[in-house]
Amino acid sequence: MAGNITFTMIKPYAVKNGKAGSIIAKIIESGFRIIAMKLTHLSKADAEYFYSIHKGRPFYESLVDFMSSGPVFVAILEKENAVADYRKIIGNTDPKKAEEGTIRKLFAESVQANAVHGSDSDENAEWESNYFFSHRERFPAKS
Ligand code: CMP
Fold first, then answer.
1. What CATH number did the domain enclosing 122 receive?
2. Where are the beta strands (DSSP E) in the chain?
3. Which of the four pLDDT bands, split at 50, 70 and 90, describes residue 142?
4. Residue 37 domain-assigned?
5. Which of 62, 59, 78 is nearest to 119 (CA)?
6. 114 in ligand 1 pocket by Cβ < 6 Å?
7. Which one, 23, 24, 111, 118, has the greatest CB density within 10 A?
8. Ordered strands of the 33-40 beta sheet
9. Is residue 81 part of a domain?
10. Which residues span the domain enclosing 108?
């Protein structure tokens, strides 16, 4: 059964360029509830750990440097079928291939600076949420 949370991160370039407010508005207008959110700055070790699945790929070092280059917003989003529905509204990893109206089409600069991260499975949504948020920082619908 599909889970009801996903994890997102608004990446450094989008935060630096003042896009966070518009991205958050689009998330809410698309029917997601923000149940946890904060502004934080990933250390290099945080970024290495978060993206460890990509270790060894040609873009890994550069991705780690980029993701630790400035503040990011991290958030847990709640909605039925959250992982798949969020991936629909963010669009393709490469903004050039992203569909019209998607967050990456509207706000991304490149494959690396692609505005937002979104979990790719329920398991990763849990793991990523747990990496950044304690239970007392979360406000699900029933609370
Ligand atoms: P994200 O959804 O955060 O998950 C992994 C990230 O790696 C991805 O978005 C991209 O920013 C980055 N990425 C994936 N493929 C490439 C690539 N070919 N070149 C550069 N960065 C990439």
1. 3.30.70.141
2. 5-10, 33-40, 72-78, 116-118
3. confident
4. yes
5. 78
6. yes
7. 118
8. 33-40, 72-78, 5-10, 116-118
9. yes
10. 5-134
